Amino acid sequence: MRPVAGYAAYEPHEDLRPIEFARRDLRDDDVAVRVTHVGVCHSDLHAVESRAAGDPPLVPGHEFTGEVTAVGRDVTRFRVGDAVAVGNIVDSCGVCVNCLAHREPYCTEFPATTYGGRDLRDGTPTQGAYATEYVVRDAFAYALPAGLDPAAVAPLMCAGATTWSPLRRAGVGPGAQVGVVGLGGLGHLAVRFAVALGARVTVFTTSAAKADDARALGAHDVVVSTDAAAVAAVAGTLDFVLDTASSAHDLAPYLGALRLDGTLCVLGLPAQYVVPPMALLGRTLTVSGSAGTAETQEMLDFCGEHGLTADVEVLPLAEVNTALQRLARNDVRWRFVLAVTA
């Protein structure tokens, strides 16, 4: 076994504390990754806040970059010293129809998640990348594009893949009219991707103070969603709307912004959406999940070609609780990343 140090959630409503644990010895198709940077996602915050008394310690972290330090004997894609990135899926059955289509998050046997899941071969619980090392099957590690900041790439492995996938599946390209709801960790990447794909982008935000930020990211238009006249002005003009807002909200304004047969893709998945039935007429409502391995590699390649990364604030791993507390207050622009090892 391989000794690892990290930070874990132990008891409900308590700070994460240091932990020492062990990763598995490398299998033939594994790579060991020295974690250098790991993103702090709302999913991590939710996992920490939803713990119950008596739960075993949990090490979060599912979007990270690092350096390969060892490879299994069958690994040919990577060598020791390679820079890599890993996301929120670390294994799948590989033989079901969804896996064969490179849609591993929809594996019919259910995939192994980076933490809070089960290893598909021995059933042991998975622990995340708020830690010095991660051992992962080589098919679920990705080459880090040259020239990109590893800290700013880490959030691409969750927020980036999650927004890239629906944009690509919708065929967003030159001439498309795209709306992005919310300007946070996911939203700011959605704007960058859509603009780089050639779309005209309208950002919907509840905060007029974010208008300048949206335009700095490349957005062409900004609509304050509480301004009824501004919302009415874009009715029926958009081909595709990507909703990244994480709090409960009414979908009617964004459905109304779509052209006939336009698509609304919801990613934020708050506890509740308000969906007036009449607002669905002539529209398509899509709930989208995570990208598979092929889409994730495509996203990284695109980012490398266009020099795209996330806007991040980097804190040392020892300040993980500061990052989580500030994330809970939405006090970040736009994503926290923890520096694990230099």
Task: Give a written overview of the molecule.
- The protein has helices spanning 42-49, 97-100, 150-153, 159-169, 185-196, 211-216, 228-233, 252-256, 293-306, 320-328; strands spanning 2-8, 17-23, 30-40, 64-71, 83-86, 89-91, 112-113, 133-137, 141-143, 177-181, 200-205, 221-224, 238-243, 249-250, 258-266, 273-274, 283-287, 312-316, 335-339.
- It contains ten helices and 19 strands.
- The radius of gyration is 20 Å and the shape is globular.
- Strands 3, 4, 5, 8, 9, 18 and 19 form a seven-stranded mixed beta sheet that branches. Strands 12-11-10-13-15-17 form a six-stranded parallel beta sheet. A two-stranded antiparallel sheet has the order 1-2.
- The chain is an alpha/beta fold and 342 residues long.
- It has two domains: 2-158 and 291-339, Medium-chain alcohol dehydrogenases, catalytic domain (Quinone Oxidoreductase, Chain A, domain 1, Alpha-Beta Complex), CATH 3.90.180; 162-287, 3-Layer(aba) Sandwich (Rossmann fold), CATH 3.40.50.
- The two termini are 24 Å apart.
- α4 (159-169) packs across α5 (185-196).
